[in-house]
Amino acid sequence: MVVGDISTGTDVLVIGGGPGGYVAAIRAAQRGLDTTLVEKDDYGGVCLNRGCIPSKALITGADLAHEAGNAEEMGIHADPAVDMAQMVGWKDGIVDRLTGGVEKLCKANGVNLVKGTARFKDENSVRVAHGGEGQGSESIEFDSCIVATGSRPIEIPNFSYADDPVIGSREALDMDTIPERLVVVGAGYIGMELSTVYAKLGTDVTVVEMLDDALPGYEDDVANVVKRRAKELGIEFHFGEGASEWRDSSDGGITVVTETEDGEESTYPADKVLVAVGRSPVTDTLGLDAIDLEPNERGFLETDDYARTDIDHVFAVGDVAGEPMLAHKAFKEGIVAAEVIAGEPAALDYQAVPAAVFTDPEIATVGMTEAEAEEAGFEPVVGQMPFNASGRAMTTGHTEGFCRLVADEDSGFVLGGQIVGPEASELIAEVALAVEMGATLEDVAATIHTHPTLAEVVQEAAENAEDQAIHTLNR
Ligand SMILES: Cc1cc2nc3c(=O)[nH]c(=O)nc-3n(C[C@H](O)[C@H](O)[C@H](O)COP(=O)(O)OP(=O)(O)OC[C@H]3O[C@@H](n4cnc5c(N)ncnc54)[C@H](O)[C@@H]3O)c2cc1C
Predict the structure, then answer these.
(1) Which residue is catalytic, options 130, 398, 451, 471?
(2) Are the C-beta atoms of 455 and 385 separated by less than 8 Å?
(3) What does the pLDDT average to over 152-158?
(4) Which of 285, 292, 355 is nearest to 326 (CA)?
């Protein structure tokens, strides 16, 4: 023990107060375990402070401004002026309410909250450095530990986040003025969401991507709907180009230089360059050497079906435990880890993890694609309903995209779904429930859906798979 250390003990120590960690801590405390949560920064982690929630707040703000300014067809003539500082302030208010709520919920459930950075001393204790001069440190002994330290943005060579014109997603959510020109490096989901926000706010957005397409991992016909709309919004794409450096330019802005695999250079003028090339797990500050636990070659802590690492009483959840790096996957893993520690028969099941991209239109998927179903040995049957055949979609002015259901032809079990279109992120919940509970196409088709709603597209996709569709032609 170092001078000034105090030492305490706890049944469960949770490191990191993001969606994985705070949910794990609350559930462990609910199960009667003495639980301590150590967070070095803000409760709510990336999700509440600089990820899911703030990005969705700005997406809503940018959507409203854009819709209001583009609704002549509906007889609305407006030219909205956006006060970006005020919009960011509104977003911060939401973040404050939610992060304050997490702290209150933890306390109300009896979780002991400790502010500081935790580092393993050995397999049953950590030292927590409180940070700041004279604030000292404390040792905490534990029976079980849940590591939930999350992830941070990847930095690429020559684009240091310390340089003012280079920004990551965090800074992109905190700009109090709207840049005239933005180069976005990376066309994954974070790059595409933020490109859409700024394009709608009037920024000239250029996206450069090393791969030959946007939104890798999504089927072509799904990603194409979003790319087409992005181009309509004025977003310019350059595929097969990696950002190599940036330099100041004579007009007071910057020039972003890109290079193809063959060494061909291009330059793009900008005021800011947003680097969104992915995130890497945070394990380097944990002192893992002290417990003989090594991340895998991608930097993640490997876990079994019970969220357990190679060390029996050390668990890992959320982004640090691997893909998909999504808040709801972190929630689920946190709950499973806590329940396993409490001796309950919990286990992870990843067959129905939905994923959503909040672009215009949104993409949301769950379970298997048709190709994945084939690969898994099923004989898939597919049903599809376009939003342009939905009365409700027409009344919202958004008719791009479709809902597709993939089912097993033999049994009718719904294996997955892909939705690209308005409110896809909400609609996917029905498909996720169908996959999770083993519902059949017939179950979905026979469920009476409210009319007129967007959710009817899910029912119609099921009917289409059974050649029973009324409002669209059967396959
Ligand atoms: C711009 C953006 C938008 C996103 N949008 C979505 C979305 O719409 N939907 C979705 O599902 N996901 C989204 N995500 C991803 C989501 O934010 C993450 O998957 C989620 O936050 C992971 O939760 P976590 O608990 O694993 O880690 P984090 O949220 O990263 O939390 C980890 C916490 O651990 C703390 N910590 C780290 N090391 C230590 C230590 N040694 N001691 C003490 N504390 C420590 C950190 O300060 C942090 O608070 C988005 C991410 C970004 C960046």
Answers:
(1) 451
(2) no
(3) 97
(4) 355
